[in-house]
From TrEMBL:
Protein name: 9e7f8d8c-c2e3-4e28-a00f-ec7374683137
Transmembrane segments: none
Superkingdom of source: Eukaryota
InterPro entries, sorted: WH-like_DNA-bd_sf, WH_DNA-bd_sf
Upper classification of the organism: Eukaryota, Fungi, Dikarya, Ascomycota, Pezizomycotina
Length: 144
């Protein structure tokens, strides 16, 4: 019996298999191959769309909106610049709140949204650090 959902899953699996084989063979590097990264992201997006109920998609949109709001606040406050860059560097939520002249509980909640979406990285229960992505946001016009 034909199933459009199963057929779509098979197509996605085939696309993923081709990318995986390219990575194994060394002909694909997700770090340097933008087209392959976008292909992989498109497959992931298609899978999310296929696997979720419309009610789930509303919840996912709410999560995305909270992430965007947190990004905008951090950008406006120049908060990414206050977090020390580099491997091994981190800052406590309280230290960051002090540098931003903000409430520790509010800064912590916003940071946790950014950690949950992999924009920032949690170090234990009270520290956070940059990710490769967030370091790009320190100076967004130059990417440095």
């Amino acid at each position: 019996m034909a199933s459009p959902v199963a057929d779509s899953l098979d197509d996605m699996a085939d696309r993923l298999r081709i990318i995986a084989e390219g990575i194994r063979a060394g002909s694909v590097s997700l770090r340097f191959d933008t087209a392959q990264r976008m292909e992989l992201a498109q497959v992931a997006d298609n899978l999310t769309t296929l696997a979720t109920h419309p009610a789930d998609q509303i919840q996912l949109q709410a999560i995305r909106l909270s992430h965007i709001a947190a990004l905008r606040l951090f950008h406006q406050w120049r908060a990414f610049e206050k977090i020390p860059p580099g491997e091994g560097s981190s800052i406590t939520y309280a230290e960051l709140a002090g540098l931003l002249d903000g409430d520790v509980s509010l800064i912590t909640r916003i940071c946790r949204i950014l950690v949950a979406n992999h924009t920032l990285r949690a170090i234990g229960s009270d520290r956070l650090a940059h990710t490769e992505f967030s370091e790009l946001l320190i100076h967004p016009s130059t990417g440095r």
